[in-house]
Design goal:
Layout lengths: L13 H7 L4 H4 L17 E5 L25 H4 L4 E4 L4 E4 L2 E8 L2 E6 L13 H15 L10 E8 L2 E6 L5 H6 L20 H12 L2 H13 L14 E6 L3 E6 L13 E5 L9 H4 L5 E6 L13 E4 L4 E8 L15 H10 L13 E3 L9 H6 L4 H4 L11 H10 L3 E3 L2 E3 L7 E5 L6 H12 L2 E5 L3 H9 L5 E7 L9 H12 L4 E5 L11 E5 H11 L2 H14 L2 E8 L1 E5 L3 E4 L3 H4 L5 H4 L7 E4 L2
Parallel strand pairs: 1-10, 17-18
Antiparallel strand pairs: 2-3, 4-5, 5-7, 6-7, 8-9, 9-10, 11-23, 12-23, 13-19, 13-22, 14-22, 15-16, 20-21, 24-25
Length: 607
């Protein structure tokens, strides 16, 4: 954890001066008065940011539980602050409102909150505010059959600036923090949206904690469908507060009492809402916006339109394009050939990923590594321990028809007159749903046909695809998966819940040992995937990660074919990230907002 001792006391704020009773104190603090522009260098520049959501500002709201037209991320992550921020790319957390955190035991996390933060109406930010939000989340999440839970069992507000969190399971500190005070999944972690003495939040909180049955169902429906509060009514505690809500813009002005206000040398932050959220080049190239939060790099033929001072950030935020296999566990009524691991391996060996280069248009890149669920940029960088142990893993994707032949014959398949037959003597055919969604599937289809495997390619509507996926009625479908960090790719919600439901892999599997030897010279080891992930989170022992990557390589629930960076674009003609940790700039999705809240550095107007 970064050292946070006395970290909020290094820069005096307007609030510090006023509390100390210094005569003329407002004039002594940088940026403390909108009429005193000379105090911050005379700068009144406005930073304009592209809004990727696109909903009209007048219809947006700051309710993190109602996903419809939510503004919890844009502009909520700027208007509201959080206790800490986690960077999936580096798997480390940085304090914001939290001064520090400790773990007296493996199921208890304690954290002290700074007393420097105030809501935009001047009220102090207290532990009760954060506790209210998470108690509401816990009540909503655990309703129904109780199968879904948060990582937290209970929250104790010791006093206004001290929290004690009890966990549902033992965790090491890094994973305890990222799953609680630095939670980074979805809207709920973007900030503290609930003010504990707000009448509406208080009412909902009370009803959620003290209702059951139909009454609980009713209040959950109310909370998750109500647009409260609207953008113009919401009171935050972040570095900027809502000033104007227009038809296609949201204007925010710097909150002068924010602990980081003295470090921020521009006064206005504007969110620009486009008519077409997919068009991210023209408004950036034409100077309508200073930055775009994602969607870069762009196709090569468009790059000459970009400003000379164009730069990228969030470059460790990536997404994989995968072949998703139906592993067949628990599936009834559909006997897929690819439920056999040797068949899956053979298909991946037949694939010639080099043939996809002409289709990438400068955006996607070949996944230059073996299947292992380690992000492509991390493999390229070569600094993470995993990049060493995966070097000897089978790579696939190299049109190795000799190895594919061996694997298919081991599975009982035979080839006659250039065509592969199943163990039952039938023509071997693979069904691929919606290959048109991913251009590299055309390469796979041709590779399989050239090898003698028939392919039935079907393009169906979304509803049909979802129904067949959920029923396990497919062989291969395209899948896209975020790849933002070594552990982020193995989070239980992603691998144990989502990918298992998608691929129907067996929760327990035998893997050849030692790791890296597909021949299993030391026999096999049975692992439970969920247990292994939990042990990794509890102990922070890399051996669990090592065995999980090996399980993925040898079991192949999915095959990573390509990846693409989902970077943000910043025109550095007027603004730059100044001394902001690379873990934030490169690895956090709302880096532009978070940089304004850190003691380490900030987004700065160059002037």
């Amino acid at each position: 954890m970064p050292n946070s001792t006395d970290r909020h006391n290094s820069v005096p704020t307007r609030r510090d001066v006023l509390k100390a009773g210094v005569a003329g104190g407002v004039a002594l603090v940088a940026g403390c008065s909108s009429s005193n522009n000379n105090a911050n260098g005379g700068n009144t520049s406005r930073f304009t940011y592209f809004d990727p959501v696109g909903d009209p500002p007048s219809q947006r709201h700051f309710n993190p539980w109602n996903p419809s037209q939510s503004a919890a991320w844009h502009p909520g992550a700027n208007v509201f602050d959080r206790l800490a921020v986690h960077s999936p790319a580096s798997n480390e957390s940085f304090p914001i409102i939290a001064n520090n955190w400790t773990m007296p035991d493996k199921t208890t996390l304690e954290t002290e909150l700074s007393d420097q933060w105030t809501w935009h109406n001047g009220d102090p930010v207290v532990a009760q505010d954060w506790a209210m939000q998470w108690e509401m989340e816990m009540a909503i999440t655990s309703s129904g059959d109780g199968s879904s839970t948060t990582p937290m069992k209970s929250i104790e507000v010791v006093d206004d600036h001290f929290l004690r969190i009890q966990l549902n399971t033992e965790l090491s500190e890094i994973y305890a923090v990222q799953n609680t005070i630095a939670y980074y999944h979805g809207d709920i972690g973007r900030g503290i949206f609930t003010k504990h003495d707000d009448d509406q939040w208080s009412e909902w909180h009370d009803r959620l904690l003290n209702s059951e049955g139909d009454e609980l169902t009713s209040v959950i429906e109310e909370v998750t469908t109500t647009s409260y509060p609207s953008l113009d009514k919401g009171i935050g505690q972040g570095p900027f507060q809502i000033s104007e809500v227009g038809d296609d813009t949201v204007l925010m002005k710097k909150y002068e009492d924010h602990p980081r206000a003295g470090d921020i040398n521009f006064d206005e932050f504007e969110l620009w809402v486009p008519g077409d959220v997919s068009e991210r080049v023209q408004p950036y190239a034409n100077g309508i916006v200073d930055a775009v939060p994602g969607g870069y790099p762009i196709q090569k033929n468009k790059r000459n339109k970009l400003p000379e001072s164009h730069s990228l950030y969030r470059q460790k935020r990536t997404a994989n394009s995968l072949f998703c296999f139906n592993n067949g566990h628990g599936v009834e009524g559909y006997d897929s050939a690819v439920q056999n691991a040797n068949v899956r391996k053979a298909i991946c060996h037949v694939f010639d990923k080099q043939q996809t280069k002409g289709l990438l248009q400068g955006v996607q890149q070949l996944f230059d590594g073996p299947p292992c669920r380690v992000p492509g940029p991390m493999i390229k960088e070569g600094k993470h321990p995993a990049t060493e142990w995966i070097k000897d893993f089978p790579r696939y994707g190299q049109n190795d028809t000799k190895r594919a032949t061996q694997l298919l014959r081991q599975a009982g398949y035979e080839r006659a007159n250039g065509e592969w037959l199943t163990p039952d003597g039938e023509r071997f055919e693979i069904s691929i749903l919606n290959p048109a969604e991913q251009k590299h599937f055309q390469v796979l289809i041709q590779n399989l046909k050239d090898f003698g495997i028939a392919v039935n390619a079907e393009n169906v509507d979304t509803a049909t695809l979802d129904a067949r996926r959920q029923n396990g009625e497919y062989d291969i479908i395209p899948d896209g998966s975020s790849a933002n960090g070594a552990f982020a790719m193995w989070s239980p919600g992603l691998v144990v819940d989502w990918i298992q439901s998608l691929t129907n892999y067996k929760p327990e599997a035998e893997i050849p040992m030692p790791v890296g030897d597909p021949n299993g010279s030391s026999g096999t080891k049975t692992i439970n995937v969920a247990d292994h992930i939990n042990q990794w989170m509890t102990t922070d022992d890399q051996k669990y990660h090592k065995e999980l990557t090996w399980w993925w390589n040898q079991t192949l629930p999915e095959y990573e074919a390509l990846y693409e960076v989902d970077a943000g674009a910043l025109n550095t003609a007027n603004f730059e990230f100044n001394n902001v940790p690379d873990a934030i700039v490169s690895g956090v999705d709302d880096a532009a907002y978070i940089s304004l809240k850190l003691e380490e550095g900030t987004l700065r107007y160059k002037g």
